[in-house]
Amino acid sequence: MDWKRDLVREDLFNSAHHMKPIIHVGYKTNDDGTFNTIVLKINYKDKEWILKEVYNGNTNLSEYVTLSSVEKKFINPKGAFNEAEHKLVELMREGTF
Q1: What's the order of all strands across the beta sheet hosting 62-67?
Q2: Count of beta carbons in the 10 Å neighbourhood of residue 90
Q3: Where are the beta strands (DSSP E) in 1-44?
Q4: Are strands 35-44 and 47-55 parallel, antiparallel or unpaired?
Q5: φ, ψ of residue 32 in degrees (nearest 5)
Q6: Can you give the pTM of this predicted structure?
Q7: Do 17 and 11 contact (CB within 8 A), yes or no?
Q8: For the segment 14-73, what is each residue's pLDDT rounded down to a tens digit?
């Protein structure tokens, strides 16, 4: 997977949560150009979390989201990514991994 630093996501994250992590994004696409997987590497205070969104076939709709160090899959069809992001912020504030 090719990683690229995402300064826009960093600024948005900081605006929303008042934390400034370093965020890299990588993704895989299907043969037709639709998304297969998007992965964010989030580094904050010498810790790294991986937030991975897996898409449902060729629909560009999220099937589930995972977050490193959390066993649960986030499956909420209307907000799995948002739910996983809020869990990430909670972990970042607690300083746990």
Answers
A1: 4-5, 22-29, 35-44, 47-55, 62-67, 70-74
A2: 11
A3: 4-5, 22-29, 35-44
A4: antiparallel
A5: -90, 5
A6: 0.88
A7: no
A8: 999 999 999 999 999 999 999 999 999 999 999 999 999 999 999 888 899 999 989 999
